[in-house]
Amino acid sequence: MNEDIQPVTPPSTEKAPVVHDDAIVQDVSGWVLRIGVVLSVVVMIVGFILSYIQTNPTVKHMEHATFKWSTHKLVIGVLHGSGESIIELGLLMLVLTPVTRVAVSVFLFTFVDKDRFYAVVTLGVLALTLISLFCIH
């Protein structure tokens, strides 16, 4: 018999361990935050400029002005080009930026990282955040 011949072993049926690439989740999350903050600041600046052109507010007016947040009023105001409504939209975008980051993280943990535990935990964080933002007055 030839001693150079080795017996053939069947391929392993074990699954390869899941390799977590946290850099992808961190990079995408960082970009979501950067883009959200920049977009919201740009929207608020546009709203400020429009508000100044439309009403030429005094310092006394700005000290006592408040936002009356309502989805319907916000949409109507933005569609009509109201500077105050556009500023309000920018503030809403700024508040929703971290929420968007958490939602993107759920997607990344589920489909890219394939880590069910972190996906479920992050989904729980997203649910609690949305409940606290929209349901509790």
Model description:
The structure is a single chain. The chain is mainly alpha-helical and 137 residues long. It has one domain (24-134). Helix content is 72%, strand content 0%. The chain is built from five helices and no strands. Helix 3 (71-79) packs across helix 4 (83-112). The termini are far apart. The mean pLDDT is 85.
As a percent range, the share of strand residues is: under 5%
End-to-end Cα distance, whole Å, is 84 Å
Supply the helix-strand structural class. Answer: mainly alpha
- Count of DSSP H/I helices: 5
- Measured as a percent range, the helix fraction is over 70%
Uncertain residue ranges = none
pLDDT averaged over residues: 85
Q: What order do the helices and strands follow? A: HHHHH
| Number of individual domains | 1
Largest sheet: none
Number of strands: 0
Compute the CA-based radius of gyration: 25 Å
Shape: elongated
Fill in the keyword field for this structure.
137 residues; mainly alpha; 5 helices; 72% helix
Element layout with pairings:
Elements: H1 22-55, H2 59-64, H3 71-79, H4 83-112, H5 116-134
Helix pairs in contact: 1-4, 3-4, 4-5
Describe the structure concisely.
This protein has 137 residues and is mainly α. It is built from 5 helices and no strands.
